[in-house]
Amino acid sequence: MTIESLPGSSGYLDLFPERRMSYFSSPYVLGLAVIAGISGLLFGYDTGVISGALLYIKDEFEVVNQSSFLQETIVSMALVGAIFGAAAGGWINDAYGRKKATLLADVIFTAGAIVMAAAPDPYVLILGRLLVGLGVGIASVTAPVYIAEASPSEVRGGLVSTNVLMITSGQFLSYVVNLGFTEVRGSWRWMLGVSAVPAVIQFFLMLCLPESPRWLFMKNEKAKAISVLSKIYDIARLEDEVDHLSAALEEERQRKRTIRYLDVFRTKEIRLAFLAGAGLQAFQQLTGINTVMYYSPTIVQMAGFNSNQLALLLSLIVASMNAAGTIVGIYLIDHVGRKKLALSSLSGVIASLVILAGAFFAETSGSSNGIYGWFAVIGLALYIAFFSPGMGPVPWTVNSEIYPEQYRGICGGMSATVNWISNLIVAQTFLTIAEAVGTGSTFLILAGIAVLAVVFVIVFVPETKGLTFVEVEQIWKERAWGSGYNIESLLEQGNES
């Protein structure tokens, strides 16, 4: 069997166009992606809800109102938990499976939500944020891999992006909930406590879903894996997929050894893959997306809109654009491609950050607050409109498909950890830097980082649209050892078949 004839490859689908699947052609896979994507909803809800809740936490606890550091800690303690959750999540995924990892994440997240809602002081609240972060960190590693391993290659990008759509939907939902509880006594407790509901729902739905077929194959549970695959593919393609999986995993089993974290850096092609994946995750955060989501109500107030409710309403509009942009990204990622989408997204992000910076520079110079306040809101909306279809889904999609099976869990966990560390850096420093150098200068710094991200994508990130996992692996071997390696490998596989 040559690379071009592997099930799901472009050559295979050209030979058998009737076996090509679309985004909606398998309700089973789409349902699996949506249920697994509730992990993304938890991620997004927590990202968005704290931005509105913080306005009311400051009103209840004077010590929080007087300390930017304490405000940043309440926001960022979830990120500290997520760093540890993501770091452990890769190992948990490989050892116990994607399904059990998701169930564990739901339990931890629910416990954290209860602690936050009942917190008598800011310090217990911070503990609850840590627990929620642990759950989100594990889930952030698990959901993209689980979806990718159950997805046909020709729609893998769109299905993995469903998880990102759930993240943005969670952010939108959080602003709706925030608005709904603005007049309720103990409003911030309800805002934070309600987050347990989707975690409980996912827990019970996940009990009805199967384990990832690739993980089952890897653990030598072939009968269970075939049972899952039979619900995804028709009989003709099912046989080819099973044969391909059996051959690929047998080859992997022969060279199998226990993969440790340092092994990622010992093999040149894995190093290159991890550099691309971790770099994308870092730039996703360092260009400021979760600063916009965490602090958008605060940014709106900085722009001159002093009412808590108006700030939340304008932030709700920003969050709705985020969700709408992700829907566009689900279509574009498997049509335009990952690399082009990331580059066009970053170009718009740079322009939007410059507009934001200009609005805040004008506002601080004593010009009309009303006009430049609206310019700041427009800049926020444009930022989301450009970011959400591209740099929102692309890093998670690319990281779910660029690593070999034996490295997928551990590399996915490591790259997600990079994402959360970068997220923590931005969240923990944004308000402090804005106070030190001004909000306008802070947005210019983010624009400069986005320029670096453009260069990084051009140099280090390959296009993986429509490729099978085996084809992607060959890209890294060719980049590591030259094109001759790829040619010799293809000839060798052709002779073996």
Compile the SSE list and pairings:
Elements (H helix, E strand, L loop, with lengths): L9 H6 L11 H10 L1 H23 L1 H4 L2 H29 L1 H21 L3 H29 L5 H25 L6 H7 L2 H11 L6 H6 L3 H8 L5 H20 L13 H19 L2 H14 L5 H26 L4 H27 L4 H19 L6 H8 L3 H33 L1 H22 L8 H13 L1 H14 L1
Walk me through what this model shows.
With 497 residues, the protein is an all-alpha fold. The protein has helices at residues 10-15, 27-36, 38-60, 62-65, 68-96, 98-118, 122-150, 156-180, 187-193, 196-206, 213-218, 222-229, 235-254, 268-286, 289-302, 308-333, 338-364, 369-387, 394-401, 405-437, 439-460, 469-481, 483-496.
Question: What tags apply to this protein structure?
Answer:
disordered N terminus; mainly alpha; 497 residues; globular; 23 helices; disordered C terminus
Q: What is the terminal separation in angstroms?
A: 5 Å
Number of helices: 23
Uncertain residue ranges? 1-5, 487-497
Oligomeric status: single chain
User: Globular, elongated, flat, extended or rod-shaped: what is the shape?
Assistant: globular
How much of the sequence lies in strands comes to under 5%
Compute the number of strand runs: 0
Rg, rounded, reads: 23 Å
Overall structural class, as computed from helix and strand content, comes to mainly alpha
Mean pLDDT: 83
- What letter string, H or E per element, gives the SSE order? HHHHHHHHHHHHHHHHHHHHHHH
Helix content range of the residues, please?
Answer: over 70%
Largest sheet: none
